Prior knowledge:
Elements: E1 2-4, E2 10-14, H1 23-35, E3 40-44, H2 50-54, H3 56-68, H4 70-76, E4 77-83, H5 87-104, E5 108-111, H6 114-126
Parallel strand pairs: 2-3, 3-4, 4-5
Antiparallel strand pairs: 1-2
Amino acid sequence: MSLDTASFPWVWMRQPAEQPRDVAGEFAEFDALLARQQPFVLLCESPMTDEQQHDRDRRTQVALWKRDRRDALKKYVKGMVMIEPDAERRAAAEPFADFASRFWGYPVEVVADETQARQRAQNLLSL
């Protein structure tokens, strides 16, 4: 996964299919983003895959990282908007979004397209 900050405060999370996950690199990118000390919204084009959801070691690393950055996450991350065009998959992603909202402490929402994502991201930044 990489964080694309070209449209900051909209930050796109992207995971090229051919690129293996680098958890340490992802944490470093996110730490640099939090170091800006400016509010932002995360956007991603698809929900997590089953492999990403069920990797126990990765979940533990994320939980520990999050615990150490709880205040910064609460202060600067205004939410995450996931884009899922398929209505059935969007509905299936809702339980993940609910769980992620509780876990991260910021709203996680699933929308149908990029236009809706940008509108929702702007609304989240205005809160």
